[in-house]
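Hi R.,

As promised on Friday, here is the backbone we talked about, encoded as structure tokens. Could you run it through your design pipeline when you get a chance and send me back a sequence?
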């Protein structure tokens, strides 16, 4: 938890605009089962960086309660709160059953849940107010990797975050469909696209590749039913790979940006142009917290030089 605070503080110092926390359950070493609590903790120890959920898994909750929580956060930290929304279960089947007695039905009702939440956040409900009502409401985002999620965001006049790092879909076409279908609501929100990219940066390409080994092996272990924690570089290097694992690793690497600062920023610029994204959010998974912060620092410094 303290590592998350230090990362948010570092991001603020380096000039990053947003810091989001995902919702996962029953994952050792990941303090994100209750992102709204972590956001309060982080918000109290930062001053200007926007903070939010990426994503809060709405099918598990009642929209009214979510609106109350994020309205409180927006009251405590004015103009800094985002509500990123998703529909994934956030864990195993056992986790889903422990959290929710009718998850699938709630997933089917997700579009209605989104509409209800937006109504409460914008204080537009005829009967209920999700108090406290902040001066600046929290900003809702739809997070996704499909045309379905993009069109849901467009229909509701919401900003859209596309998870490029976890999708094999035609992202540029999905984002264009979002822009084409966008319906501006009463708040006057314009189409806004955030692209989430996995990147690891170091002074040299070789060093970045070495650091990335931990993340890659962890993803492989997770896909194979293990991966309780991100292994050290030494542990990752000693991991015995089968032939099918090597193919998976190469595919994973193609979905990441790994390299020295000029290479990483150049790739980010190419993605921004390809996707016509308004913002890029960087996900960096490393064993060493120092390596993670240093990666963000190098990218920010290179961006500032351009």
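Update: got your reply. Pasting your designed sequence below so it's all in one thread:
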């Amino acid at each position: 938890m303290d590592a998350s605070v230090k990362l948010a503080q570092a991001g603020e110092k380096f000039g990053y605009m947003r810091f989001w926390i995902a919702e996962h359950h029953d994952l050792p070493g990941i303090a994100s089962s209750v992102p709204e609590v972590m956001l309060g903790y982080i918000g109290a120890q930062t001053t200007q960086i926007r903070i939010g959920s990426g994503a809060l898994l709405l099918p598990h909750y009642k929209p009214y309660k979510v609106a109350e929580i994020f309205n409180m956060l927006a009251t405590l930290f004015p103009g800094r709160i985002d509500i990123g929304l998703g529909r994934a279960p956030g864990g195993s089947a056992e986790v889903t059953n422990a959290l929710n007695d009718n998850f699938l039905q709630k997933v089917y009702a997700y579009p209605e849940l989104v509409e209800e939440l937006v109504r409460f956040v914008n204080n537009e409900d005829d009967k209920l107010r999700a108090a406290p009502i902040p001066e600046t409401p929290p900003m809702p985002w739809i997070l996704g990797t499909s045309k379905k999620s993009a069109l849901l965001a467009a229909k509701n006049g919401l900003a859209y975050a596309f998870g490029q790092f976890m999708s094999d879909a035609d992202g540029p076409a999905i984002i264009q469909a979002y822009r084409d279908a966008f319906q501006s609501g009463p708040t006057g929100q314009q189409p806004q696209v955030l692209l989430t990219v996995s990147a690891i940066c170091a002074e040299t390409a070789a060093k970045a590749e070495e650091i990335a080994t931990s993340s890659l092996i962890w993803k492989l272990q997770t896909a194979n039913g293990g991966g309780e924690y991100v292994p050290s570089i030494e542990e990752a290097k000693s991991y015995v790979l089968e032939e099918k694992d090597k193919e998976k690793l190469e595919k994973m690497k193609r979905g990441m940006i790994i390299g020295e600062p000029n290479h990483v920023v150049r790739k980010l610029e190419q993605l921004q142009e390809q996707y016509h994204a308004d913002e890029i959010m960087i996900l960096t998974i490393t064993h060493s917290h120092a390596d993670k912060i240093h990666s963000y620092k190098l990218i920010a410094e290179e961006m500032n030089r351009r």
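One thing I noticed while checking it: Strands lie at 18-21, 50-57, 81-86, 139-144, 159-163, 193-201, 256-259, 279-283.

Thanks again,
M.
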